[in-house]
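Q: Hi! First time doing this. I have a protein sequence and I read that you can turn it into a structure. Is that right? Here it is:
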Amino acid sequence: MARIAAASFAGTSIEFYDFFVYGTAAALVLGPLFFPGISPIAGTLAAFATYAVGFVARPLGSVLFGRLGDRRGRRPVLVVSLLMTGVATVLVGLLPTYDHIGPAAPILLVLLRFLQGLGVGGEWGGAVLLAAEHAPPGRRALWASFPQAGPAIGFLLANGIMLTLSGTLTDGQFHSWGWRVPFVFAGVLAAVGLMLRASIEETPQFRELVAADEISPSPFKDVVREQWRLILLVAGALTCGYVAFYLTTTWSLHYATTRLDVGRTTMLGCIMFAVVCKAAATPLFALLGDRYGRRPLCVAGCAAIGVWAFPMLGLLATGEPAWITLACVGTLIAFIAMFSVVGAYLCELFEPRVRCTGASTAYNLGGVLGGALTPIVATELARGDGTPWGVAAYLAGAAALSVACFTALPETRAVFANEGKPVPA
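A: Yes, that's right. Below is the predicted 3D structure, encoded as structure tokens:
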């Protein structure tokens, strides 16, 4: 289990590094480099729009790689998705800007971001299923939380490199070539991840499906026909987590550096400290999920996000690093209270023959609802002077939606067993 957890954790860390490094670059430099000639706010919105393309692609990646995972095994998903995301990210780092190739630059940027999203859409399901389907039932949330901790490490890697470059290079150097370094470095990380995953065995449950000749010929068709309500409920349930995370890690970076005159290095440091706290809390909440159930932690996390929404915006708007750090820590701790157990929860909600497709599609559809538009909507809501309370209301509304959806979902901790019986939807 340690080797399996390490491989799934390393893979999600690397893939989400690729995904997050784009978000940081979109907040800091991509607007003027790829969308020149328009106002700064319009350039930022355009950069965030290409950022949203990655989220739109993620459910498509879930369908594509979910079929591969449900018909050929969880292991092939881990290799192909990592390779696709790594190549797309490196190519972003090598992409000429608008000044060099004109309109082709933003078009190619959107295409590569789309490929990034396809790869990440497949990665999550394969990595979580690898850990969850190998894990003993009484510790499924704990082991499935390792790939859930991967995004935090990916974020720290992405922003750690950005922070180092931001603190050591001049603005001219950073805008000229410094921003490219984290993208090109993704190639090295992808090679490491592929080596780690080369020796991983297929999961016991998939081998049982093959032996019993129960492989679904059309996983997406089957899961939509049989469990479409479950997919929509899960997507709605996860929405507020995505809103909270991307408000904290992407939008707040742009807002603080452009509207509050907080230094780029200072703001990255505040966010990174909060992400470290989130990563450290992940296994602790997962253990609580194994003891008390998945749904109670999810409901509590969503409710905490809603309650914290207005204090979070008030603290952020002070422009003081200590208060900004507190705002980010509070939001991400509430976020991980729910997302620490989501890996096990989604695996337990969907039956094994369509699990990769169902869990991945629901998870990434929630990403579209909560993550794709959040930086754009928040940027619009923060246009005026003063504290952008509309952003807090947006987060609180998403939390209310998610609490309602989680309340409608069943508890799975005591129901799911290794024989693979589906939970009643």
